[in-house]
Design goal:
By secondary structure, the chain is an alpha/beta fold. It has two domains: 3-143 and 264-293, Response regulator (Rossmann fold, 3-Layer(aba) Sandwich), CATH 3.40.50; 145-262 and 296-322, Rossmann fold, CATH 3.40.50. Helix content is 42%, strand content 19%. It has helices spanning 3-16, 20-26, 43-55, 78-87, 98-107, 148-158, 175-187, 203-212, 224-228, 230-239, 249-253, 264-279, 301-306, 313-318, and strands at residues 29-35, 64-70, 92-96, 113-117, 137-141, 164-170, 191-197, 218-220, 244-246, 258-262, 295-299, 321-322. It has a seven-stranded mixed β-sheet, sandwiched between helices. α7 (175-187) links the parallel β6 (164-170) and β7. α3 crosses α12 and α4 (78-87) packs across α5 (98-107). The longest helix is centred in the last third of the chain and has 16 residues, at 264-279. Residues 1-21 have low confidence and may be disordered.
Length: 323
């Protein structure tokens, strides 16, 4: 065999063994991001995902492209938007919240899905187990029942002599979330009234009802819809001078009173590691569900002053961030 023929043969054999990561570098991977709100309300999550991807060597516009779809707080649009991503031949879909996860589950059983959820995905039948999810889904999940007792306890510390509170629930939220909150209230001997809303126009009536019922504070239950409408919720809480507690820091950064829960930046940053591993050939069903170990208490002292509420110094000292 001539030297030239040996060189060509070696080159061809080498090309046949190009690893998947190098192949992805030649052709940008396609990621689908399904946002429950709009581009403005979802900016922190998107930026965290982009940072996480950059840390793994994936640069938007170079080695990856991201197809964005926004539900604008409307859960009825999720199925259509997920179907669009499937038709776009996406390599991995990133979603958050149970309605979006369920929509993705109905839309595809083959395209890998990385999710962020605040409830137990095993109990809801989304995955088989935390250790080996099976199927085409994996991601990050924080079981709300382990958080809500702490949230209500912190609320009673922040609001002196609190005996009655309101639970604000969107009708698309999982019933298990409400059950956990009611159980936690009974444990703390706190009288609660549940107020359900379907659309943004019902927020005013819910706060008015809470005030007339003698609720001294409100716990806003996790909901992608409510998260997308958080500016309006914060406005209502200020108008009715209602101390309100939320599950994510995003609310407090935007003027809400208090939150206790996992870091959104951490969750979406870590979701990028799942996307990276899947793009490099990992089977999503073999990737264990990540459960956050760190939770942050965030207090907006400016909002507290506007409400005429003096947050105990001991509680401020325990906060991870005071705004």
């Amino acid at each position: 065999m001539t030297t030239r023929r040996m060189f060509v043969t070696a080159a061809l054999l080498g090309a046949a063994r190009v690893p998947l990561a190098d192949a992805k570098a030649a052709k940008p991977a396609r990621i689908g991001f399904l946002g429950n709100g709009n581009e403005a309300t979802s900016t922190p999550a998107v930026e965290a995902l982009r940072r996480g991807l950059r840390d793994q060597g994936w640069i938007e516009g170079q080695t990856i492209t991201i197809e964005y779809r926004w539900a604008d707080g409307r859960t009825d649009r999720l199925q259509q938007l997920t179907a669009e991503l499937v038709r776009a031949k996406i390599d991995v879909i990133v979603v958050s919240g149970i309605p979006a996860i369920m929509a993705a589950q109905r839309a595809t059983r083959t395209i890998p899905v990385v999710f962020v959820a605040l409830v137990d995905p095993v109990a809801l039948g989304i995955v088989r187990s935390l250790a080996r999810p099976g199927g085409n889904m994996t991601g990050l999940a924080s079981q709300y029942e382990e958080l809500v007792t702490k949230q209500l306890q912190l609320l009673t510390e922040a609001v002196p002599n609190l005996s009655r509170a309101a639970l604000l629930r969107h009708t698309s939220s999982e019933p298990s979330i409400l059950n956990s909150a009611q159980s936690a209230a009974r444990t703390l001997r706190l009288d609660v009234r549940t107020l359900e809303v379907t659309r943004e126009t019902e927020f005013d009536g819910a706060f008015k009802t809470a005030k007339s019922a003698g609720a001294g504070a409100m716990l806003v239950l996790p909901s992608p819809y409510l998260g997308a409408q958080r500016a309006r919720l914060i406005e209502m809480a200020a108008r009715y001078r209602m101390p309100a507690f939320y599950e994510l820091r995003l609310y407090v950064d935007d003027g809400g009173l208090m939150s206790y829960g996992p870091s959104t930046a951490d969750l979406y940053g870590r979701s990028a590691t799942y996307v990276d591993r899947i793009l490099k050939g990992a089977n999503p069903g073999d990737l264990p569900i990540y459960r956050p170990e760190r939770f942050e208490l965030v207090i907006n002292e400016k909002t507290a002053r506007a409400l005429g509420l003096v947050i105990p110094k001991a509680l401020l000292n325990r906060a991870d961030a005071v705004i």
